[in-house]
Amino acid sequence: MLNKEIQIQVDKGEMLPLMEEFYTIQGEGFYTGTAAYFIRVGGCDVGCHWCDVKESWNADLHPPTAISHIVANAKKYAETVVVTGGEPLTWNMLPLTTELKANNLRVHIETSGAYEVSGEWDWFCLSPKKTKLPVQSAYDMADELKMIIHNKHDFMFAEEQAAKTNSNAILFLQPEWSKKEEMTPLIIDYVMNNPKWRISLQTHKYLNIP
C-alpha cells in the first residue's frame, strides 16, 4: 500500500512503477536493429497467456520511481526511448513523454491500446490483444500494427484489426516465440499472398540480446 503522497504522484504520472530500464537493440517491428533505451513500466490486466514478461503484470511489485530519475538515465544512452510494459497506457504518460521530449529524445511506445492514449509519441506501435481490444484513439494513432500469430485463427484476427486501424499504419505479422517453428512458414506464405503485410521476428532472441 503506497502512502498518500506517493499515490498522488503515481496517479498524476509523476512517478511510475518501473520494472526495468536498459539500453539495447530494438528486436521487433519497423525499427528492428536500431539502438534504443527501453523503459518497462509495471502493471497490466490484458492477460495474454503467452506473455513473456508476466512478472510485469502486478504493478505493486515494482517501485514507484520519479520520472526525473527515469529521464536522467535515459538521456545518458540513446536518442530513442521505447516505453513498454506491462501496459504503459495504464498510467498517465504525458509527464514522462513531456520530459523526455524536453531532453530532445525521440519517444516510442509499444502498447496493446487497451486504454485511452496519453502522452506525446513519435512512433506508436499498436499490438492488439483479443482479451482486451484497443480503444479507437489507439487505432487512429498507430504508426505500426504488430499482430502476434500464435495459431491459424490469429490471421483472421489480424485482418479484423487491420481493418480498424488507420490506413497509414505499417502492418506486421510476428510469430509468437514458442510457436515460431510452426507459425513462421505459415506467415511467410500469408505475406506472399497478402503483400500489404510484413514479417516481424523477435531478432533479439535469435541474437541473444537482452
Reconstruct the topology from this structure.
Elements: H1 4-12, E1 15-25, E2 35-41, E3 64-66, H2 67-74, E4 80-85, H3 94-102, E5 106-111, E6 123-126, H4 136-141, E7 144-149, H5 153-164, E8 170-175, H6 180-193, E9 197-199, H7 203-206
Parallel strand pairs: 2-4, 4-5, 5-6, 6-7, 7-8, 8-9
Antiparallel strand pairs: 1-2, 1-3
Helix pairs in contact: 2-3
Characteristics:
210 residues; TIM Barrel; 7 helices
Task: Give a summary of the structure in a few sentences.
With 210 residues, the chain is an alpha/beta fold. The protein contains seven helices and nine strands. The protein is globular and about 55 Å long.
Task: Characterise this structure.
The chain has 210 residues and is an alpha/beta fold. It has a single domain (4-206), classed as TIM Barrel (Alpha-Beta Barrel). The protein is built from seven helices and nine strands. A nine-stranded mixed beta sheet has the order 3-1-2-4-5-6-7-8-9. Strand 7 (144-149), helix 5 and strand 8 form a beta-alpha-beta unit. The radius of gyration is 17 Å and the shape is globular. The two termini are 31 Å apart. The mean pLDDT is 94.
Q: Say what the CATH topology is.
A: TIM Barrel
Average pLDDT score: 94
- Radius of gyration over C-alpha positions, nearest whole angstrom: 17 Å
Share of residues in strands = 15-25%
List low-confidence stretches.
none
The backbone outline, from C-alpha atoms, is: globular
Backbone structural class: alpha/beta
Largest β sheet strand count, sense and barrel closure? 9 strands, mixed
Give the quaternary arrangement of the chains.
Answer: single chain
**Treating each run of at least 4 consecutive H or I residues as one helix, how many helices?**
7
